[in-house]
């Protein structure tokens, strides 16, 4: 996606403790936040070619939302349900939603492109943090002429209230899938990911067919607000954790989090970091409740002099991690399927060094519902 402009907006930040922020959007270069008093302007760059469009809403999803004063949300009925919504819309009868905005999340030195995509579902496809939407790209399935494409699942990167806090949008974190010919080194568009490119190329107002929501394994357990949560992500696998953290630290909801949230994020380099400003703000505002460790494989070295991966960070903090697990912490893994063997090997090695049997420990973690994995 080409980006021809960098537009500067001024964003006001809430002050005081009683803040009720219903909507946080830009329209025609004007920031509208209801009737509350605001102070202390911060500059906010929106690196998006779409920022030129005068009638487009661009959801403020950055550091300005992550303020110490919690944000008011609506409708609060979304807190009332005892069970998560599941499969409200199926592949044969998907819901037609609308693209609100598409923003490039990564810097120029990131390998590949990752986009933050906000979708308006009108409140008709509610979901909980940790669930996924299915997306059916337009066109017909080349393997089944006359039939639509298969559903692609994407972890939702927002809370149930969405980035505009009104329960009407959902956000996806999507990496554009491209294929390079190993002989020529050139991109082969015929083998590009159909759905990821459709989403990353979409424009405000475009329609998108969605199914779901689906999934229960990554739901955030809220029965114990004092519980600790260890989140391990590679790349776009950070999506569900962004939702968790917004619920824990940003929104004024019935869930009053009092535990520790610890995020490990593995990406290629600094330009590949996703939602880094948002996470850094939590670190500043909640230093006793949030820890954030980055593994930058192309910029950092592990203790053996090799590339730094998330499993190296896990090993570095293994004593604390194992102690937290023994005390009942939940541990989550989300990202590419290839991340798990290296992580499992590291955990097994660490366990053995501690005189523990990893297979038995893993079995117990699963039995206690402390172990949550979603890989793709």
Structure commentary:
This protein is an alpha/beta fold and 376 residues long. Helices cover 19% and strands 26% of the residues. The protein contains 7 helices and 16 strands. The chain has helices at 194-201, 239-249, 276-285, 310-316, 318-326, 339-353, 358-367, and strands spanning 7-14, 25-27, 30-32, 38-46, 58-59, 95-104, 114-120, 132-136, 152-155, 169-175, 207-214, 229-234, 261-267, 290-296, 330-335, 371-375. The strands form 4 sheets. Strands 9-8-11-6-7-10 form a 6-stranded antiparallel sheet, covered by helices on one side. The chain is globular. The two termini are 24 Å apart. The model is unreliable at 1-67 (pLDDT under 50).
Features:
single chain; alpha/beta; 16 strands
Write the layout of secondary structure elements.
Blueprint lengths: L6 E8 L10 E3 L2 E3 L5 E9 L11 E2 L35 E10 L9 E7 L11 E5 L15 E4 L13 E7 L18 H8 L5 E8 L14 E6 L4 H11 L11 E7 L8 H10 L4 E7 L13 H7 L1 H9 L3 E6 L3 H15 L4 H10 L3 E5 L1
Parallel strand pairs: 12-13, 12-15, 13-14, 15-16
Antiparallel strand pairs: 1-4, 2-3, 2-5, 6-7, 6-11, 7-10, 8-9, 8-11
